[in-house]
Design a protein that fits this description.
single chain; alpha/beta; Transcription Regulator spoIIAA; 4-stranded mixed β-sheet; 34% strand
Length: 93
C-alpha cells in the first residue's frame, strides 16, 4: 500500500488521516489537502507506517506552523525530534 488520505471535517476543523506509506512525491497532494481544509488542521498519523526524510522535515514544518500531529509512532516522533530539536506529537485526538 502506498498513501491514502482521508479527510474528516468536524465542526470548524479538519482532521487529515494519513494511511500507509508517504514519500516526498506525495507531499504536493498533502499540501493541497491542508491548504483546502478548514482550520485548524490536525494530521492523524496513527496508520502511517513509513516516511522518508523529506516527509519528516515537512511534518516538522507543519508543527512550527501550528498544525497538530496526533498518534505518531515513536520512531516518527523521535525522527522529528532529531531533525527539529523537539518531538511534539500528541498521543491522541
Amino acid at each position: 500500500m502506498t498513501l491514502r488520505i482521508e479527510l474528516v471535517r468536524e465542526g470548524p476543523s479538519t482532521t487529515i488521516r494519513l494511511i500507509g506509506r508517504i514519500r516526498a512525491e506525495h507531499l504536493d497532494e498533502l499540501k493541497a489537502q491542508i491548504e483546502g481544509s478548514r482550520k485548524p488542521v490536525v494530521l492523524d498519523l496513527e496508520e502511517l507506517n513509513l516516511v522518508d526524510a523529506e516527509v519528516v522535515r515537512f511534518l516538522g514544518t507543519c508543527l512550527a506552523e501550528g498544525i497538530r500531529l496526533v498518534n505518531c509512532s515513536p520512531y516518527i516522533n523521535n525522527w522529528i525530534a532529531q531533525e527539529h530539536g523537539r518531538g511534539s506529537c500528541d498521543s491522541e485526538l
